[in-house]
């Protein structure tokens, strides 16, 4: 936990850990999409303005990470640690922590990543396959290939762990428009989230952040930070017409709630 605080509080991150108050599915079970209202206790330490967004830092599934590391490193066990001075971390950290919270192990491999992987491949035919963009496109369509899949598919290349730490991209935060109004919802931030899915030939896939969010329950915690919104909020007395579908309703919900708050406070409302 100390290492995670070191990482998420480092320069360029400035994230805070907040508890989940509720994670409620909004749609009927028969509906083929999963919309959720997620309420967070962001408290006074994370103030926000009307129309802002919340950036959530997802993490990989620890069980999937463990399965990958056991297959990739025959001598790996849960106590395996490395000493690093990177990612804002200075000292010893478990491999499991790095691959769970820092590295986008199950993200889509880029052309640049495949080029770097190819430098460790000694079999010329395999190297051709790694560098073949048609292979990457075909596998993306067929299996939804991930970086972990590529490392295990071309296991003979086997970049050492220090190299993996430099060639696997870091997990990036995902921004969600805030559906609550700060003056109407003290210390609580509410999100309207679509659990987004996509398909490849082998079946349905779920994105990293969505896969994590759909499993979270009240009492769990999220690492996140506020981000200025892209939509300028209207003044309460301005007449407003909103149009949005699905989770795109979130900022409009915030505007509406602020108008209700203003009206209840006796302010002039458009």
Concise structural overview:
With 270 residues, this protein is an alpha+beta fold. The chain has helices at residues 2-8, 62-72, 95-102, 111-118, 124-131, 133-142, 147-153, 161-167, 208-213, 250-264, and strands at residues 16-25, 35-41, 53-57, 81-86, 89-94, 174-177, 188-194, 197-200, 203-206, 221-227.
Explain what the structure shows:
The protein has about 270 residues and is an alpha+beta fold. Helix content is about 30%, strand content about 20%. The protein has 10 helices and 10 strands. It has helices at about 1-10, 60-70, 95-100, 110-120, 125-130, 135-140, 145-155, 160-165, 210-215, 250-265, and strands at about 15-25, 35-40, 55, 80-85, 90-95, 175, 190-195, 195-200, 205, 220-225. The strands form 3 sheets. It has a 6-stranded antiparallel β-sheet with strand order 6-3-10-1-2-7, with no helix packed on it. The protein has a two-stranded antiparallel ribbon with strand order 4-5.
How would you describe the shape?
A: elongated
**Class from helix and strand fractions:** alpha+beta
- What is the residue-averaged pLDDT? 94
The N- to C-terminal Cα distance equals 48 Å
Low-confidence stretches: none
Structural Rg: 22 Å
Give the biggest beta sheet. 6 strands, antiparallel
């Amino acid at each position: 936990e100390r290492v995670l605080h070191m990482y998420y509080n480092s320069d360029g991150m400035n994230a805070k850990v907040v508890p989940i108050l509720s994670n409620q599915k909004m749609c009927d079970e028969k509906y083929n999409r999963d919309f959720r209202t997620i309420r967070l206790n962001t408290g006074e330490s994370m103030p926000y303005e009307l129309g802002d967004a919340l950036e959530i830092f997802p993490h990989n599934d620890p069980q999937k990470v463990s399965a990958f590391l056991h297959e990739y490193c025959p001598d790996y066990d849960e106590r395996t640690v490395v000493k690093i001075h990177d990612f804002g971390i200075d000292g010893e950290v478990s491999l499991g922590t790095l691959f769970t919270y820092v590295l986008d192990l199950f993200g889509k491999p880029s052309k640049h990543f495949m080029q770097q992987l190819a430098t460790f491949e000694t079999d010329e035919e395999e190297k051709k396959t790694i560098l073949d963009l048609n292979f990457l496109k075909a596998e993306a369509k067929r299996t939804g290939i991930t970086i972990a899949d590529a490392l295990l598919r071309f296991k003979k290349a086997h970049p050492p762990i220090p190299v993996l730490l430099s060639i696997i991209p870091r997990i990036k935060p995902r921004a969600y428009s805030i559906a609550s109004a700060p003056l109407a919802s003290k210390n609580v931030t509410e999100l309207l989230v679509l659990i987004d899915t996509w398909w490849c030939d082998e079946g349905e896939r779920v994105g990293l952040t969505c896969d994590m969010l759909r499993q979270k329950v009240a009492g769990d915690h999220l690492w996140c930070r506020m981000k200025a919104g892209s939509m300028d909020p209207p003044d309460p007395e301005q007449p407003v017409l909103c149009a949005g579908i699905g989770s795109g309703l979130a900022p409009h919900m915030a505007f509406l709630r602020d108008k209700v708050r203003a009206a209840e406070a006796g302010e002039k409302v458009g």
